[in-house]
Amino acid sequence: MRVRKRNGDTEPVDVNKIVRAVERWVADLDEVDPLRVATKTISGLYDGATTSELDKLSIQTAAELIGEEPQYSKLAARLLASYVDKEVRGQGVASFSQCVRYAHGLGLIGDEVAAFVARNARKLDDAVDPAGDLRFEYFGLRTVADRYLLRHPETRLVVETPQYWLLRVACGLSRTPAEAIGFYRLMSSLAYLPSSPTLFNSGTRHTQMSSCFLVDSPRDELDSIYERYHQVARLSKFSGGIGISWTRIRGRGALIRGTNGRSNGIVPFLKTLDAGVAAVNQGGRRKGAACVYLEPWHPDVEEFLELRDNTGEEARRTHNLNLANWIPDEFMRRVEADGEWSLVDPSDAPELPDLWGEEFDEAYRAAEKKAVKTVKARDLYGRMMRTLAQTGNGWMTFKDASNRLSNQTGAPGNTIHLSNLCTEILEVNSDGETAVCNLGSINLGAHVTAEGVDWEKLRATVATAVLFLDRVIDLNYYPSAQAAASNPRWRPVGLGLMGLQDAFFTLRLPFDSERARELSTSVQEEIFLTALETSAELAREHGAHPAYPRTRAAGGDLHPDLWGAEPTQTERWAALRERVAAHGLRNSLLVAIAPTATIASIAGCYECIEPQVSNLFKRETMSGEFLQINTYLVRELKARGLWTAPIREQIKRAEGSVQGIADLPDDVRELFRTAWELPQRALIDLAAARAPYVDQSQSLNLFMSAPTIGKLSSMYLHAWKSGLKTTYYLRSRPATRIQQATVPVVAPTEAVACSLENPETCEACQ
Amino acid sequence: MLLDPGMDLTLRPMRYPRFFDRFKDAIKNTWTVEEVDLHSDLADLARLSPAEQHLVSRLVAFFATGDTIVANNLVLNLYQHVNSPEGRLYLSRQLFEEAVHVQFYLNLLDTYVPDEKERFEAFAAVENIPSIARKAEFCFRWIDSVFDLRQLSTRDDRRAFLLNLICFAACIEGLFFYGAFAYVYFLRSRGLLHGLASGTNWVFRDESMHMAFAFDVVETVRREEPDLFDAEMEQQVTRMLAEAVECEAQFAEDLLGQGVPGMSLADMRAYLEHVADRRLAMLGIAPIYGSKNPFAFMELQDVQELSNFFERRVSAYQVGVTGTVSFDDDF
Hints:
Chain A: It is an enzyme of class 1 (oxidoreductase). The complex is a heterodimer of chains A (766) and B (331). With 766 residues, chain A is an alpha/beta fold. Chain A has four domains: 2-189, no CATH class; 217-409, Anaerobic Ribonucleotide-triphosphate Reductase Large Chain; 436-583, no CATH class; 633-669, no CATH class. In chain A, helix 3 packs antiparallel against helix 4 and helix 4 (71-89) packs parallel to helix 8. Chain A starts with a strand and ends in a 13-residue tail after the last helix. Chain B is an all-alpha fold and 331 residues long. Chain B has twelve helices and one strand, in the order ααααααααααααβ. Chain B has helices at residues 17-28, 39-47, 50-78, 85-112, 116-123, 125-128, 130-147, 155-189, 194-224, 231-256, 265-282, 296-299, and one strand spanning 304-307. In chain B, helix 3 runs antiparallel to helix 8 and helix 7 (130-147) runs antiparallel to helix 10. Chain B starts with 16 loop residues before the first helix and ends in a 24-residue tail after the last strand. Chains A and B meet through helix 3, strand 10, helix 17, strand 20 and strand 21 of A and helix 1, helix 8, helix 9, helix 11 and helix 12 of B. Strand 20 of chain A pairs parallel with strand 1 of chain B, so a sheet runs across the interface.
């Protein structure tokens, strides 16, 4: 078999050459077998393949061995890094500053950053950590290489290495080289990452770095609706995720005075929004995404809940929109009391979207006299549950808790009308102001050892993170005038965390244990407290944010006070209060726990505050499919001599569950339960316990393999009663599955033998 | 007995509740073609190497008629002989699913092959592409083998019926389609053709159920009429699978003939042999090849998926959820 070199010559494939290329990277990977990678690579090759195809295939081959031995993930990542490196060097780039100059010449880098790097070239070039790429896992680096690294506009070749990318992001937000280098080191260590829009766009010519936009419902008129389509398209183009309310738009059958016609309701308009969102592709990196919020008294709520059904009239289905219910307490009370619920047209009660709490309750009761229709509250609630079970959508978010427990709603006229695409952002907005939030997440796993949390490191990370989240507000490019109007006034940021499950595994805490809850709460208190301290310090230097006098903090109430919570670090809180009283806060909101889907992959940790979904699963992304294996479990099993082919087989057969594997001790099985096997009450209770230290909200997914209306209605009632402001997806599992193709078949005769009547012959049950 | 001629209409007492359960499970898995978004595939198609483009065009040509053949056999040869109303419920459902698959592949070809002439050629693949024609001939021969049977009166009739059933479950759905899925998932593991792969996820899930149902029928008949299953039958099934492997291997030669890195012809053959052995194992018959699965990307299909909703539409939900509002259920 021969391969074609880059210069066109051919040569025979040389196993040893591949082995040597692999051996370069395995110094700390004792379980990796370079010869195995080499021979497997060659078996997938065809005669006359190019050396570039050979290189790519060796990466893929290493990645395919991850299921047997997780160390191959690091190997695949390193082979990929070296491939990327070759590609960059091949374009004449030998240093960071050269890279920035080259990319600037291609029109990819902003002028200011290019000048900053040119001025400080030597210092910045020296700061690049040659060992930085060794920390990546394969899935993370593949994602980085395919989507985050800048590419040549014509050749589509990658023009920056992963480390140059992180340093470029840092430079885009820094004023001095020392700042840039400090921030780069933090990101390169994977202990903290800003959200994707910042990672995509910092330092480039379009510095839209915010993740979330919360757009108020259009006014109940055609021009306003079409203005919103335009705004959504612009926000989406620059990588933002969008939440938009539709509650103010009149329902089907309502009178339109101008033409004396009847309205077709909200569905046709949402269908247009759906098409608009799908059409805007976020710079080729991902599809646009939006979530529509509706309050449950809207007359079209029942049709709204069917928008994601996969049967029925296509003209009334929106497959690209996410849906969320924005629920007042009054609705939940009537559900509990088995009362009636009135659907009221917003054109008859235009004040309702701006009211919450008792004011809403009164206005709603008055508006019920004009009800378009009356339903049983439980019937509607049941339909909401069905939508959740069948589509995962129709998220339950609670209007009154969201407003009552917010720093921004202290003065009249400021109302939170909706949450965002991922239900962790809660900010006031209005017709003329679109709320914006910049996000970033701490990798908690990187702050924990078997001895416990490294609190000092955590505080340092929070302080740096808040500084650079705040910086984004000033440097950001705002794609709409409404967004530019809101953000400088309120200066909200959303610092979250990821890798909570990593911390629990490292400390051997079952997810639903008392100690896990205590740890998660004290971590959250530490994060929030430090974030407030940092914001107060920024206020001392630069002044409080302009809307500060209208916040609850200005009246002396910090977020835990709104909950009536009793913090543990009383002295620090007392000192903080004094500083806030003296200088105010630079940011109206500080903490929001985002889903971190992509950045957790890059950091190689579990997503935000979620339990693991499985000990063995695959991720499907635009880059391909990736096997993910629980390395904590593998380590544990290796230590016990249980990481054997039959055990791997059993884990796979059980779709990543270890509950049925009799060879594992109870404590191992308890620790390594999956999200499907944990009581969901524990997830809700954990979220409620940390909530006093989350001044926005949390993207809380809930999991149920086989949902029923009864279970769901009990679960969401509990979530509401616990005071949670929002919940996110309901994850469930398909009713049927594909036939596994790679685990041994249990033949029919064996299956007959496995029966309760003749247990002595049954090996499977012993 | 299940294969006794007649038109049993009695659902209570139910003789084969397992068939009914399969029917209910299938309904929970309803999907529609509109849910599959193929538009991102077009950009990928333009990026493929000529060898990969050839692979895709042949694959698509096979899909164009594959499910139609299965649907025809179901109506012409299977439905009339499975004399159980609950079994027929499942088969009706299966027929609907085959129709959805046909529609999906129709949609796929309309999207992938914009040129009308080329599209017509793709649909005529069973006639003008030799590697597909050979697979079609194999199918038609087995359709014809029982086509004239109005009822299964003799032992030979029943064995002929069983062979047809096993052929469609183990060889056509269980091997030809499994082969085709491997190409799709290979491309998907390289980050290519997500639209095709997400539709295939649904199809694959359905086909797995069809196969499982067919094997249930085989097992039921085996329980009711064990003497139908003798050494001769085993030999026939083994020969049939070996022939199917050859059919599919010559198809692979056509698809991979131009060199596709990561998918060598030898590996594809080993995969097909491995799958064939599995089908035999499911029937309690000794394996022919003893080959191991060489494709790690197929192992990925055996584990739970987790999609980021930004990336793809998640396909892991159920329809037909039941129950009423209550506040004290365990969760």
